[in-house]
């Protein structure tokens, strides 16, 4: 196990109302178990809606509230566009996959 415990989630396909519960649940469980570093790889996301963006922001807030760090890596074109259009780019710490 990494020190501090780390969670690296690879998201593929659609990040929307039908799929966000899995992501939110995984982050919540690991945060409760003491995980303080969360990296979400979004390179394989083909579609993201407001629910998906909201879930990312909620996960970021949950991890930060527990004293951890939340990062997104490898934004797909779909995610990058939604983040840009909504003005939320500055809300996320981004990293390359090599440093993840």
From TrEMBL:
InterPro entries: Anti-sigma_ant, MlaB-like_STAS, STAS_dom, STAS_dom_sf. Pfam families: STAS_2. Residues 9-100 form the STAS domain. Coiled coil: none annotated. SUPFAM superfamilies: SpoIIaa-like. It comes from the Bacteria. Belongs to the anti-sigma-factor antagonist family. This is Anti-sigma factor antagonist. It comes from Nocardioides deserti.
